[in-house]
Amino acid sequence: MGSKVALVTGGTGGIGSAICRELANQGFNVVAGYNSGGNHEKAANWKAQQAADGFDIDVAYGDVSDPASSEACVNGIIEKHGSIDVLVNNAGITRDSTFRKMTLEQWDEVMNANLRSVFNMTRLCINPMLENKWGRIINISSVNGQKGQFGQTNYAAAKAGMHGFTKSLAQEVASKGITVNTVSPGYILTSMVAAIGDDILEKIASTIPVGRLGQPEEIAHAVSYLASDPAAFITGSNLAINGGQHMF
Ligand code: CAA
Ligand code: NAP
C-alpha cells in the first residue's frame, strides 16, 4: 500500500496550509480542499507555491457546506488517490455580530460552513475508513467553542457542536481502528484573526498568558500527531492549544 491519504478541508487557508505541510512532512499524501468561490486559479497558485517550497500537495474543489459539492469533492479524491484515510475538518468562517443584531443569514452561514460541513464530509469518508479498519477524523474547533465569545453566538455554537459530534462518533467507531478527536485552537495569526479590529484584538491578546497569538504550525504539529499510528489510543478527546487563555 502507498502513503495514507489525508484530506484537509480549508487546506489552502492559514491553519490549513500549515496542517497540509506538516502532514506531508510526515509522509502522508495530502489533498487540500478549497472553495474560494470557485476561484480555481487561486488554488492552482497555492499548489504551485507549495511545490516551489518542496511540498507535493494536491488541491480539490468543494463547498463543504453543500452536500452535493462535498460528495463530488470526496468522490474525485478517492478516484484519483484511492482513499481518504485522514479527514481534517478544518474549513470555517466567522460572521461576527452581537446577538441582537445577528441576521438569520449570518447564523445559517456559520452553522452550515462550520458544523453542517462536518456532517457532510465525515459521512462520505467514514464507510471507506470502516472497510479499511483504519481512519483518523480530526475536527478543528476553537477556544471560543469552549468559553464563548462576545459577538460569536453563531460561531461558538457551531464550534461547541463539534465536541458533541466528536465524542459521539468516537464511541461508534472506536472498535474499528478509527479515532475521532477535536483540536481547539486559541487565537492564531491568520487572516481570520487579522479581520478583528486592532483595538479589540489587542484586548484579547492581553488575556493570553503566554503573551502572544499562536502560530498555525503550533496547531499543525498536534494534528499530525493525532493522525499518526502512536495516537491510536487517543479518541473522543479535545486538545486545547490556546496559550493558556482558557483552561479546563
Ligand atoms: N464585552 C462586553 N461589552 C462589549 C464587548 C465585550 N467584549 N465588546 C463590545 N462591547 C459593548 C460596547 O462597549 C458597546 O456598548 P454600548 O452599547 O453600551 O455602547 C456594545 O457592546 C457594542 O455593541 P454592538 O452590537 O454595536 O457591537 P459592535 O458592532 O461594535 O461590535 C463585534 C461587535 C463585531 C462582534 C465586535 O465586538 C468584535 O469584533 N468582537 C470580536 C469577536 C471575536 O473575538 N471574534 C473572533 C474572530 S477570530 C476567530 O473566531 C478564531 C477563533 O476561533 C479564535
Ligand atoms: P482562514 O485562513 O480564513 O481559512 C479558512 C478556510 O476555510 C479557507 O481556506 C476557506 O477556503 C475554507 N472554507 C470556508 N468556507 C468553506 C466552504 N464552504 N467550503 C470549503 N472551504 C471553506 O482561517 P484559519 O484561521 O486558517 O481557520 C481554519 C479553521 O481554524 C477554521 O475552522 C477556524 O474556525 C478555526 N480556528 C481558527 C482560529 C484562529 O485564530 N485563526 C482559532 C480557532 C479555530 P476558501 O478560502 O478556499 O474559500
Structure notes:
The chain has 248 residues and is α/β, with parallel strands linked by helices. It has one domain: NAD(P)-binding Rossmann-like Domain (Rossmann fold), CATH 3.40.50. It has nine helices and seven strands; from the N terminus they run βαβαβαβαβααβαααβ. The protein has a seven-stranded parallel sheet with strand order 3-2-1-4-5-6-7, with helices on both faces. α1 crosses α9. The longest helix has 29 residues, at 104-132. It starts with a strand and ends in a 7-residue tail after the last strand. The structure holds acetoacetyl-coenzyme A and NADP nicotinamide-adenine-dinucleotide phosphate. NADP nicotinamide-adenine-dinucleotide phosphate (NAP) binds next to α1, β2 and α7.
